[in-house]
Amino acid sequence: MAPPEESPDEVAGPVAARDAATIMLVRDGESGGGPALEVCMLQRHLNSDFVGGAYVFPGGKVDDEDRTPAAEEACALRSDAEASDMLGVGSGGLAFWVAALRECFEEAGVLLAYQGDGSLGEDTMVDAHDRQTRHRLAALRVALNAGEVRFLDACRGEGLRLATDRVHYFSHWITPEPAPKRYDTRFFVAALPPGQVPIHDDHETVDTVWVRPDDALARAKAGEFDLIFPTMKNLEAISRFATSGDLLAAAAAVELVPTVLPRVVVDQSGFRILLPGDPGYDQAVGQGTPDPDRGRAMTPSEVGAIVRTIGVDGRAERP
Hints:
Elements: E1 18-31, E2 34-44, E3 55-56, E4 59-61, H1 69-73, H2 80-87, H3 94-108, E5 113-115, E6 124-125, H4 131-145, H5 151-157, E7 160-162, E8 168-174, E9 183-191, E10 205-211, H6 213-221, H7 229-238, H8 244-253, E11 259-260, E12 263-267, E13 270-274, E14 290-291, E15 296-297, H9 300-309, E16 315-317
Parallel strand pairs: 1-9, 8-11
Antiparallel strand pairs: 1-2, 1-4, 2-3, 2-10, 5-6, 5-7, 8-9, 12-13, 13-16, 14-15
Helix pairs in contact: 6-7
């Protein structure tokens, strides 16, 4: 007889973090003073098993197919060795770029890719200004999300190479150790390709918005826009840039991206997140966050619920 399955709160030690990738699609909107940076965000379905109802950037888990030799063959102008060096891993780094581009197409309908094999010495981005290209991409996305075709096979069949060189590594966040679901997520940033219009898939995501980072944070503070802590911190980071060009140039020039593994602690005011470099971070124990009011360490489910409500200031009130 098989032993009963353990609940997340009964598993000894922290849950392993799954590799994931997400991409911030950016463009320049119009404001009174000229062009202004905007980022595309999707609202997750309310019944989603992960941050249901929250506004997020397109992204998801790294799949096995993203790690295959065929995946590297489908990529333009960036090798696995180069990608792995950028991420500080021994190998397999390119899979994060592939996952980010695949999820971007599945969830938002935007495909960052080059036409042709590059043999003519030119790399031309897929331009969806014409109706035929828009319809072709839409049909491809429907087939992909229906499981009728695999992402790499679809790209190969259309004569496309993934524009991994247009996607810049921006940040690295790992879910706190006591949480019941954990992800080791690489955040990327890229410009919206010409003629393409992001649109949610009406399955995993139910709304699409273009928003200025500062406006998203202000709306979140007012309770009008549901955001989770890593999303808020990345919005805060990109809000320093006036235009998409400024952001992309800065991201392309970054040589070292630090890893951020938050830790949850309890104080008299409630709960707060500590980040590397914060006072007390090194003394905070990731597994087994103590809560004096409970007289015990918080369970992973309790920590997960708290992390969901943390504000951009890193604090959450005691429920």
